[in-house]
Amino acid sequence: MKNIGLDKINVYGSRFETGFGYSEIVKLKLDGETYLPVVSGLVNVFGVPFDKRDSENIFCSIVSKKNFVEFYSKCDLKKSDSWILGATTLRVGESIWGTFTGPNLGKIKNYKKLKTKIDYKLKIKRGFGDFAYDLWLTKSRNFGKADKDTVEIMIVLEKNFNNFLGEVIEETEEFQVRYQLKENKSDGVDNGHTFAFILKNKKLREFDILKLVNYCERKLKKKLGNYHLRSIDLVNEFSYNTEMKVDLKKLSMGMEKKLK
């Protein structure tokens, strides 16, 4: 199952860094066959002034250990005009923000099963942060921005702060569901719909992605089957005066495509 020619994923820095690799704990089961998919790691510091983006103020990494992948984020800035200052990301799929940097996962309508299971340990030493799935659905495979038709689906596994994005639209047994419409932004880059499913039962580790897509369809009153599933990300977002890490012990994705 090893990806020949690729190293294990290791990315670190204080500004914007990305890299490719694999990990034995990230497994993709597609139509009965198990693979170690190509994954990309990303350190993205976006809420800090450029002259403060150095190792004295901030350091993030995604590092392959023996039995897990470690997400680490440290920001020593004592205050900031922004709340979320950056994120470390592990991605399966292609980025909507840059060139086609990963495997094409295809359209939602091509799947009859799309589930994911995770095992991890989160430790926030100080400050504020979260750990979440972040899925991106787009009407076309254009890159460089999230347009008005983009649908972002977050599964927030854990967080230690209350001022999360959007407004609460429903309370279910499993989730508090929040929604935000981003439109008419001056730069035209980060628009669209965001649904955040904030997990209530922290012991829940397996999620049916198609079920969440169907929920979004009902709320938006439109079908998303022709949308492209651009990526399945795991993100560790952090605020100022924060030090935290996540040990990702297992990430498995079960996918079954419909017969043509």
What does this protein structure show overall?
The chain is mainly beta. It has a single domain (10-257), classed as Jelly Rolls (Sandwich), CATH 2.60.120.180. Helix content is 5%, strand content 51%. It has one helix spanning 209-220, and strands at residues 10-13, 16-21, 26-30, 33-35, 39-45, 58-64, 69-75, 86-93, 111-126, 129-138, 151-159, 167-171, 175-182, 192-199, 206-208, 228-238, 242-257. It is globular, with a radius of gyration of 18 Å. The chain starts with 9 loop residues before the first strand and ends with a strand. The mean pLDDT is 91.
The gist of it:
This protein has 260 residues and is mainly β. 5% of the residues lie in helices and 51% in strands.
Name of the CATH class: Mainly Beta
* Class by alpha and beta content: mainly beta
Give helix and strand order, one letter per element, not per position.
Answer: EEEEEEEEEEEEEEEHEE
Q: Ends: how far apart?
A: 27 Å
| Secondary-structure arrangement, i.e. CATH architecture | Sandwich
Largest sheet report: 9 strands, mixed
Number of domains: 1
Helices and strands in order:
Blueprint (H helix, E strand, L loop, with lengths): L9 E4 L2 E6 L4 E5 L2 E3 L3 E7 L12 E7 L4 E7 L10 E8 L17 E16 L2 E10 L12 E9 L7 E5 L3 E8 L9 E8 L6 E3 H12 L7 E11 L3 E16 L3
Parallel strand pairs: 3-17, 11-14
Antiparallel strand pairs: 1-6, 2-5, 3-4, 5-8, 6-7, 7-17, 8-16, 9-15, 9-17, 10-11, 10-16, 12-13, 13-14
